[in-house]
Amino acid sequence: MKTVSRIYTVLMLIFLYAPVAVMVFFSLNSGGSVWVFSGFSLKWYEGLMEDTTMLTALTHTIIIAVLSAVISTVIGTAASVGILSLRKKFTKKVITSVTNIPLMNADIVTGVSLMLLFIFIGRLFSLDESLGFVTVLIAHITFNLPYVILSVMPKLVQTDHNLLDAAMDLGCTKTASFFKVILPSVSTGIFTGFIMAFTLSLDDFVISYFTCGHYQTLPIVIYNMTKKTVSPDVYALSTVIFVIIFVLLILYNVVQNKQDKRRTAI
Amino acid sequence: MNKKSFGSRLVAAPYYVWAAIFVVVPLIITAYFAFTGKDGSFTLSNMYGISKYGKSFAISILYAVIATAVTLLVSYPMAYFMTKLKISSQRMILLIVMLPMWMNFLIRTYSWITILANTGLINTFLKAIGLGPVQLINTPGAVILGMVYDFIPYMILPIYSVMTKIDHSVLEAAEDLGANGFHRMTKVIFPLSLPGVISGITMVFVPSVSTFYISQKLGGNKNLLIGDAIEFLFNNGPDYYNIASALSLILMVMILLCLTVMNRFDNGEPEGIIV
Q1: What is the pLDDT of residue B4?
Q2: Among A3, A124, B121, B247, which one has the highest count of C-beta atoms within 10 angstroms of its own C-beta?
Q3: What span, in angstroms and rounded, lies between the C-alpha atoms of A221 and B208?
Q4: Is there a domain that residue B151 lies in?
């Protein structure tokens, strides 16, 4: 059994990492093909630094990811508090269902429906350009919100409400006790929600594709590049992003392991 | 909770407004476009026009069903083997399984062209040993492979996380009562892991059935999927918005119906999807 499971796991990892290996390998190609390898070179990486389209798109992606993650975390956390304090079961159910729509729906439908809304509004005010920075940002906040709510809500449910009463008995005002007691106790949920929102926004292609107009994010630029014949520069760019994320994840895990050890030590 | 005042309910107001404008209204507008003509008058012609795309719907569903089934078959043993590892190794392998997901979805798909193309890695190898070349790219198989590859972590993760929570004493009890390995699997582990399987299926099926990039890159545009049709029509300009909206609406209704049916099977989890 043990050998079977080992072989299976290894085969699985080969399957999962074959495209990654291909990407890294051909990003080092000295030729311009992603099929024929003609020798090692770093020229595609050097080329990246001068590619203004790509660098602009990267800036756009980061701006959108940061803004949409911050805004959706604030709105979403507040929403979780509010939804939980709803008394009517029916209202709660309706709101939960609406929250689930972007989560359940196909990305393409979310993207298309938002695009139609923006175009509709654009026509209403006869704007020249109905899609752009604002619309991508709105779209990203919209699909991030359910993820934030989904990570904050369960933590809020777990919070002991006696803590809030205790804080108020000890003289805290309602608002102060919320910020000093409730918020810290759900901070891990808020953090998870923020990180999820940030990464989803970084990676989104389909919804941005329909809502971005001329405001190109990185996945859009990559899409346009893969429409034509691809040169290894796309692979080089993806390798750079992949390595950055890989390092961040390793660091995150090391920190978490350390925290776990400290916790068990106490 | 009875002390919760008007104030704590009011903090959610921005979200309610947001969800109303950017979740509910867009769907109403999509429906509006789907049921009106270019001049804005009510018509059912878009709905009749959909029959042209019957084949696309059929192929999309077929591919997505096959891809979901394959993903489930491949992921289930993987998730099971992962739970058998030491806790520290489990965390490590989870990270390893999730890591390719951090590569952009477009690149992940595109890399398969390098592997599958007629001059690609597999065919170069096959030619070298005298077996090739074999047509791999631009086939239905390649599209399905792309779907499986792109969405497999969405299947492994929920199954794994449900499986790790299975109480070991339940398995021991089954063993004491005479269940062999096969019966422990079919009568205990599988039924208990069903919530994970259900959410895995929905998380793979929905993006598969609505994809347009995978089929364009790996299928060579031979068989138009429903996502391809929607994307193509919307890119063709405002004249096609009505028919494209009708297609989107049908796709959405179809997905929501599938999810509702799936949820019927998953009666144990109250925190599941409410549609």
Answers
A1: 52
A2: B247
A3: 23
A4: yes
ipTM field: 0.88
Number of domains forming the structure of chain B = 1
What span, in angstroms and rounded, lies between the C-alpha atoms of B177 and B172? 9
Q: Compute the nearest-CA separation of A200 from chain B (Å).
A: 10
Q: How many CA atoms lie within 13 A of B6 on its CB side?
A: 0
Summarize the confidence of residues A36-62 as an average pLDDT.
89
Residues from chain A that touch B97, judged by Cβ atoms under 8 A, are: 13, 16
Residue B6 lies inside a defined structural domain of this protein: no
Task: Point out the residue among A17, A106, A114 whose CB comes nearest to the CB of B26.
Answer: A114
CA closest to A84 among chain B residues: B9
CB-count burial class (<10 Å; 0-12, 13-18, 19+) for A195: middle
Contacts of A203 in chain B (CB under 8 A): 102, 104-105
Query: Which residues on chain B are in Cβ contact (under 8 Å) with A149?
Result: 15
B103 to A15: CB separation less than 8 angstroms, yes or no: no
Contacts of B91 in chain A (CB under 8 A): 253
Start-to-end Cα distance in chain A: 39
Q: Is residue B274 part of a domain?
A: no
Question: What are the distances in angstroms from CA A230 to CA A225, B117, B192?
Answer: 6, 14, 46
Closest partner CB to B4 (pick from A85, A114, A218): A85
Mean pLDDT value across residues B161-180: 87
Domain housing B62: 22-265
CATH of the domain at B163: 1.10.3720.10
Q: Chain B interface, mutation test: which of A34, A108, A137, A140, most B Cβ atoms within 10 Å?
A: A108
* A49 has a pLDDT exceeding 50: yes
Residue B271 pLDDT greater than 60, yes or no: no
Chain A residues closer than 8 Å to B99 by CB: 245-246, 249
Higher pLDDT, B9 or B185: B185
Region of poorest pLDDT, from A125-134, A162-171, A193-202, B75-84: A162-171
**pLDDT (0 to 100) of residue B275:** 29
Report CB contact under 8 Å: B106, A105: no
Mean pLDDT over each residue of chain A, to the nearest integer: 89
Mean pLDDT of B130-155: 91
Percent of chain A past pLDDT 70, that is, above it, reads 98
- Note the helical H segments in chain B: 6-10, 13-19, 25-34, 45-49, 54-83, 87-98, 105-116, 121-128, 140-163, 168-176, 181-183, 190-209, 213-218, 226-235, 241-265
With 70 as the cut, is the pLDDT of residue A87 above it? yes
| Amino acid in position B248 | S
